[in-house]
Amino acid sequence: MRIPRTLMLCAAPAALAGCTAGLGGTTPVVPGQAAPISQAERQQGTQARDDIIAEYGGVYENAQAQAIAERVGQRIAVQSGLSADPDTFTVTVLDSPVNNAFATPGGYVYVTRGLMALMNDEAELAAVLGHEVAHVAARHSQKRQQATQTNSVLGALGQVLAGAVLGNSALGQIGSQIAGTGAQLATLGYSRSQESQADRLAVQYLKSAGYDTDALASMLTSLADQQALDQRISGETRSVPEWASTHPNSSDRIRAAITEARQAGGTELARNPAPYLAAIDGILYGDNPAQGVIRGRDFLHPKLGIAFTVPQGFTMNNGAQAVTITGPNIQALFGTGSYSGSLDTYIGKVLQGLGTGASVPSGQVRRTTVNGIPAAYTQVRANTQQGQVDVTVFAYETSPNRAYHFVVLTPAGQGLGQATSLVESFRKLSQQEAAAIDAKRVDIVTVGSGQTVSSLAGRMAFDDYQQQRFLVLNGFPEGVTLKSGQKVKIVTE
């Protein structure tokens, strides 16, 4: 399992919420003249590194992708003034399908393979990493959890999930702390003014590094298009207000980035698509089957032989610690923990680990069977800073030493609600079903004579939205005409 799929840049882990600027504020920062990295900042970033790598599924072991990320990342980072020595900056590609990147105090810069797959040239990579380095250079505060949470029940649910502890797991390396929705709400990141300042600095860094200053706008456009497509594919019709509340409206941000590029100049500088595309040829796309995959509304884990289906209109995020699910006034988490043969005991440990103060009432664990699998469940009322919620734990015994569970959080009095079909969908995969789940990879191909968007999109390893996926992946507008000899990305199995 992986970190939630968010199209939000700069969602650094909560362990790093501790820069020096005031809450949400900005101070003037001259490109190339940021205060040098301090010993304390270096120590802070070093201490957090192992946790970050574990949370994001580990380091992506791809020499070409790592090499170009390091070369471009160091080239753009030295433009900040944090250090003139490129080796001061440690650039890491994370094995996560999430479209994300961030930098931490001390010269640590991270980008996911998911975001690298969406980029189309070195300049876009430089733009994203420059934006992240700019946050560090400006010493932007990340202590904005309360400012970014709303009074909705979802904010309360996120607070509960943030404290969850489920123990060890073979399921996508579930560790000691729940990541997912709670962690995202806890680290939504920066204020709008800070995001705008980081964008302005990133454009300046692009120019001084010799990259096309339009690259930030093109990358932001790709992110917005991918977000819109993901919502369309999932059936999620609710709009996401201004990039999870803290990020400037995507269209406004793109327009501002274009204006910044025009004012800075350098829109004809290098983009270097050829070396970039060569470096990401064969990069893993989407979920790694070894960690479970999302296919439409299904979560499938071929290695463990289990699956479940979310209701129509729900979204699902495959995280490094768990799978998180969001629906109308519902949030849920799917995971596993150590199992000693008693579902009652297992459910009790899950509730204790949530940190809600709730425990299993005597005699309140009920038994049932789901798709032939022994199961048990209970529901309790929990208090949060935003009010009371119903917490349902639904557990399944798949073998004498293995159990899985959902934690479902809903407004008080709602019970499972629309999540009923979710908990009833848990099932075992047949060997044939598991064997049919293949890894997807980015394949760089050369457009041949007579080939069109339609013909190339038809080779995409998806059953739906092939053309739309092809266009977004390549940063192409509707109606684009391909040229013979042009390099493009497709996704194959």
UniProtKB/TrEMBL annotation:
Keywords assigned by UniProt, alphabetized:
Hydrolase, Metal-binding, Metalloprotease, Protease, Signal, Zinc
User: InterPro entries this protein is in?
Assistant: Mito/Outer_Membr_Metalloprot, Peptidase_M48
GO molecular function annotations of the record: metallopeptidase activity
**According to the UniProt entry, where is the signal peptide?**
1-17
Q: Which Pfam families match?
A: Peptidase_M48
Q: Which PROSITE patterns match?
A: PROKAR_LIPOPROTEIN
Coiled coil regions in record = none
Q: What is its EC number?
A: 3.4.24.-
- Domain annotation Peptidase M48: ranges: 67-257
What cofactors does the UniProt entry give for this protein? Zn(2+)
Keyword Cell cycle annotated: no
Q: Which PANTHER family match?
A: METALLOENDOPEPTIDASE OMA1 (PTHR22726), METALLOENDOPEPTIDASE OMA1, MITOCHONDRIAL (PTHR22726:SF1)
Name-wise, this protein is M48 family metalloprotease
